[in-house]
Please model this.
Amino acid sequence: MNKEQVIAKAALKGNMTQREIRNSLNAVIEVLVEAFENDVNVAIAGLGTFQVRKRCNVKKYLPENGKGPVKGVAGERAMVVINDRKYIRFNPSSQFREKCIDKSSQSTGPEDRAGKSG
Model:
């Protein structure tokens, strides 16, 4: 589902115009981006928490020819340092998990598998 599809569905459910929903959604996205730029975590009740995390410098070794590692081929390797970078981690709330995630895994539980094998 893309942004326009979300806007269309929200407009139908909320009895609002698509323009009003689009403006509201864009405002929410702007607020989220500003929060993430300032390393602020965002918690939305019923949905979950967006956490800004940081990965430290990592050293990677590349072969001299730049084609990637090849088994059994000796040669010089160059070290590349990948700088610190931020990423956003999403932790779903328990309500969201119960409604969406746990439902899909209920049908593949051990009881279901045991019943199918016999």
